[in-house]
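#struct-queue
[09:14] JT: dropping the first one here, sequence first, then the structure tokens:
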Amino acid sequence: FGYCARVYLYSASHLIVAAMAPGLFVDHKKGEVLELKQEFRKLSSKDGKRAKELVQKVIAYMTLGIDVSGLFTEMIMAGAQGDIVIKKLVYLYITNYALSQADLTLLAINTLQKDCRDEDPMVRGLALRCLCNLRVKQILEYIPQPIKDGLSDRSPYVRKTAVISCVKYFHLDKRNFLDSGMLATVENLVMDRDPQVAINAICALNEIKKDEGGMQVNKKVVLVLLQRMKEFNEWGQCVALDCVARYSPSEQQEMFDIMNFLDDKLRASNSAVVMATTKVFLRLTQDSPKIHSQVFKRLRSPLLTLISGNNIEVVFANLTHALVIAEHSPEIFQKDYKQFFCRFSDPAYVKKRKMDVLVEVATEDNYENILEELAESASDTDVSMVKQAISCISKIISKVEGAEEAGCATLLGLLDNDIPLVTAETVFAMKNLLRKFPGKAAVFIPEIRKNVLKIDDSDAKVSLVWCLGEYGEQIDDAPYIIEDMIEDYADEESPQVRLELLTATMKMFFKRPPEVQKMLGRLLAAAQDDLHTDVHDRAMLYYRLLATSVQHAAAIVGGASKTVEGIFLEDDNAELKDRIFDEFNTLSVIFRKPSEKFMKTQQNDSDEGEAEEEEDDVEEEEIRESGGVGAATTSGSSFLDADCEMTQADFQERWFSLPVSHKLNLRGDPSFLLEGMEPTLRSANIMCMASGHQDGGKKFFFYASSDNQDYFYFMEVTISAEGLVDIVVKGDDESLVPEFLKEVARVLQGKVFPA
């Protein structure tokens, strides 16, 4: 309120003073623009120094966000000055305001065309670049001829600029570009005598022919690129090596010749060149397993050198590529495993990547030292580091034959640290190991029992309850631990814990029925009233199984668990690893996922958008006909009672007693759905009874009533992390539910759509 008062007082005083002295208070920025316009008009064609000062001042204003588009004509006239600095600044100005001043941009065409024929190659190149950066449809007819002239220009700077201009023109007018014959000229420039022009031509062809897999690579092109490799700068070498990697030699001797020629590039100081060369070696030998394995050994020394650098970001990228190599050929780093031990100064993301490599290179000869290193990392103050370290210890125990004794001792030692987070993660790891090594129950279960009261984490609770259910006969007071958790059932927030508690109690009932029978009944009664659908359904399943046949229920729920053979499936995604390996030296390696997971082509986006629009039209019509969300209207106010109140017990009773009236599948922006849906519906007098997180998403229970509270409406909304929305609606009078849905649609219009 104080801030608003100050604003009003300031505004009032401003108006009073302005009235007393008219003309005193004017927009300072507009005054400056008018002053600059007058200065430009007074400017003499010979006064180059003053012209430069004025142009620099305009660019400074433009950089600060001040609108100086009103000076468009004056700036174009200033561009006629012969000073190269003025021309650069004017070109920058024209490019910035071309779209907003499309009609005035035509005034600059004559100046730009003239500059494209200037004697100075720098001016010719800058003018051509500016011309192709305008992106105004009215000037497309003026672009081809300057580009053609630039492609055959005597200056390398102009030629390389013209090559990149071809890409810009291709995206502006694809059909006319292909009909102009410029593509063939660009292909010839791959053999240009200037290395920068040649590399730019390769990049341009890769972009223009992206749908065909990039520039076509043949033996002649590869030989030229290899012979000129020393002429290219480091960026150019990476581009050339990427082309060579796409080439398939016709015979083995040709493959060896290429590898011998590029061998010195593995010793380059630039890691990008080394990785590009590595990709060439791996691609050339992928059909020769024996040579392929020898290439891995050859890569050992360069990779170890790169991961010991000082640039942390580059080290991380190199470590990630080393991990991909280690996943396919772990033996090359097995003797150098200490190179991947964490340094105190390493950031967390580098330490995590090193731990991943240590898991891959662990063997019967080195696992003890690696386990010690990971145990040290498990005492880190960073929560994510603790989880990663204990997870890696568990993976090594599962992977390396003979490591279970030392690994289990390491985990037991971590429990002695008496750190809640470490204890929780260790219990979680022990649960997974018991699935593979059930014989370790005699060692793990007593230690887990000692730490029951220290476990608060939901994942650790799930692991603890699982252990109680599987090995309840080995823990004397297991039923009483379970009973305490059943007493606190209503306060347990995690549905995963409640689900596991149901299963564990059932299993313990078949092992120790006299002690568990009554508590199982209380648990089933509480779970049947649970608002979480999965918990409710599982409780009903167990209840009906027991009611049908206790023996059948024991066989289904209380049967012996199978022992995991080999490593866990989630740790052995061979297909994903192969996909990432095929995309070596790309962002796929850094993100640890194939490119289609984080990139989409423009064509795919267009196709998907058209398909979604068609589906939306069909589904909106279907929902509209059924009286659903698609029948929304934007007019009218809420007919729901603003003073609607209901207790949780009443809500549960009526929710489970009423039949489902409508089900809808929608989609929307996840950020709005997860954070903004509740207050938005509340504004329409639709109240939230309960909400909670679920599998990265959220679940809500809403209720509302008519003005006179004669009828109530109930709605369950489940939102996924991807923005998918499942709605279940019930009502006292089913005939009135469509009217309620129309109100929901009115409030959420533009926010949710048919899925």
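[09:21] JT: and here's the second one, same format:
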Amino acid sequence: RSQATIHPLRAMSSVTDSTTSWTKSSWRSRPIKHQPTYKDKKELDRVRETLSGLPGLVSFEEVKALRNKLKDVYEGKCFYLQGGHCAETFSHCNKERIQPMLDVMSLMTKVITDYTNVPVITLGRMAGQYAKPRSSPTETVNGILMESYKGDIMNCAEPDVKGRIPDPNRMIQGYFRSAACLNFIRSSTHVNNRVTGSMLQRVRMILGSGGIRSCFHPGMVGFGEDGKFKKISKDILMNPAHQLKTPLEPGQNFFISHEGLLMEYEESMTRFEAKSKGDEDGVPFNASTHMLWIGHRTRGLEDAHVEYFRGLYNPLGVKVGPGTTADVLVNLVNRLNPDNEPGKVILITRFGAEKVSKDLPPLVKAVRDAGLKVIWTCDPMHGNTFKANGFKTRDFANVVKEILNTVDVHVKCGTRLNGLHLEMTGEDVTECVGGPEELTEKDLPRCFTSACDPRLNFQQAMGVAFATGYALRASYNETKQADLTCLPTTTNVKYGKVFGLNKAVSKMVFGTLFLHKVAKPFDLLDHIWAHGVNAFDTAAIYGSPEGKCEEILGAWIKSRNINLDQLVVITKGGCSGADSKWAPRMSSAQIVQDLNGSLSRLGLQKVDVYLLHRDDPTIPVKEIVDTMSGLVKQGKIGTWGVSNWSLERFKKAVAYAKASGLAAPVADSTQASLAKPAAPVWPGTTFMDPKREAFYSDNKSGVSVFAWETLAKGFMTGKWTQEDVKTADDKPYRERTLIKAYCTEANFKRRTRAELLAKTKGVSLHTVALAYLMQLQCEMFVLVGTSKLEHFTSNLGAFDVSLTQKECEWLRDGGELHAM
């Protein structure tokens, strides 16, 4: 498979359906897989009507609570543990089956929490996991052809021709079994606060015998001898039962989940949470469970399941396995989560122990580079299934190996494994080989009770918890300052000062306007940082969709663990996008809203420099300065400035702030180049004229200039000739506008002089143009945007170009210069 990263613009190009009309039944017009064929359509309609009228099994508030918890999981503040039966059966709905599952998940939570020092959010594959996709719609049993078993909610497990005919009434049975299971969980929290005696005895037995310590992958060097293991073991071996479990509180740290497969059931369980009193529409959510996932077989981008799930408020899981391509995955995440809300989508990877190290990295990098805020979890079960002694089984060693290899992939990609997805039980089944009891293939017939695929038993599940906690300990609680990605100790880059900011700022700033179009944006950002450039300019409206460039930059900062003490982030707000013709958004509420959106996309608590991208002269400077000064005081911004304001308004803002003892604007972002535009290049923008330059020079210590279009959109690299001026009216609007702005007679002469000086000094034309700006008398920072590593490296050559004051004046005005 190609390792190429799919850039966000391409990824978004095929997800236009995410904005089309959605209803709870719009999936019916799409292709669909793995659904039963019900013969009695009237009975199906009656069942659907009945289910639609029954109360939801979960509340919107509980789903909302899970969404909030998953934001913490995404940020590394919590871990995610999802486990339960491969396929629940109606007969599982009793205390003897439910309680052991709760017990083992609670103990696993304790182990993982003790290792990682973060709380665990637990989701049971229970109270609704009654449907299963099958590789074949039919099977032959004792010479008789019949439908395959597809889960108790569709047909029966027993090999009976009549019983295998899908019966819609089973959906109602599934609803009430789910309700009963959930009711037991909700009503037994007092029981869940302690470990049952038999389970405690089994835990102590495998710890005391060394079973846990002896069954791990060779890569776990030091396991069993580390302090964490010894402390956890001592707690379990010595402490009273009531101190050992982490209580599972439904709706707080414990939630239910199932695969959303049977679409007739899922649609019937769709409810709408009113946004306000009298609201007849509301927010759609599935009230049968807190979280649903789409299986590997049913996640086609244009298929029915994705169409239904994209409209739900519930968090959504997606199984990701062999054959998944980077572009398909990025498009799928964008379809399910177009607003890129952190924690809305959980990617559940299932490749197998031998394939994950090769197949997973390209997908992680593509999602990472697209700036998508997903939760990564590992399903180490489905990719490791094989047949032995007449049974499907899994080897515990391969389960652990896939977890370890997945952790390693995320470490190398600068991401984090956020969770586990397991098929397991709290019972003493013999369905998977290996583990603390060293089960073999001969043990499989002894107690194989799964309705479908093999599950980890209690001892094996505890072993996985220890292995996972050990593997993740560094990811969650051993990040050190030395691990931060810091600037190089030697560089030719020069740094300047922005008033009010207590860190150096590189005189060359990388502009991210077109970052969303870069094929491998992280590689480009790595290259820029590694050369010593620490300042990055972005904006709330940059990218497609708007804000995408901030998301990419934020994802890079997070994945590379960039040293924030050295990083300078400049972003802009207060301006609408192209659809609103860049209209100003300058009320106090709009400024705060834009800033909060930028902080969220960047994943930062604070930006260093916040610029107001447009001005609204109808709003008094007092209101604007009061708002911005308040944000400085709150610690959300380090300092602030403006972009595209008139010089008079800027001076008024400075004067009012100083007179009132408030934080004054200290930066102005305007167009500046050796090539002087004939007029403002774009509507509503400003440029460096002599009056503005004089003001900047006189106030060098208090005002910094961030210049954009520093190479005049390529004019100062040799782009455009006199012939282009003659045919300008025949060119597209954007190019025509640039030619008329920059291709003046005076600028052609300036370029000729710069070419002559560059030739004399043995450097490139564009480095002379950039050096000219950086050697003006004001505190100048030049913005440079590029999509190619070699272009940016070439731009850095400007720091090696030395110009005298007389040379700068000659470049600008002409006249006499020393002999060339």
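[09:30] RK: nice, looked through the second one.
[09:31] RK: Residues 424 and 456 are 4 Å apart (CA to CA).
[09:31] JT: good to know. The radius of gyration is 31 Å.
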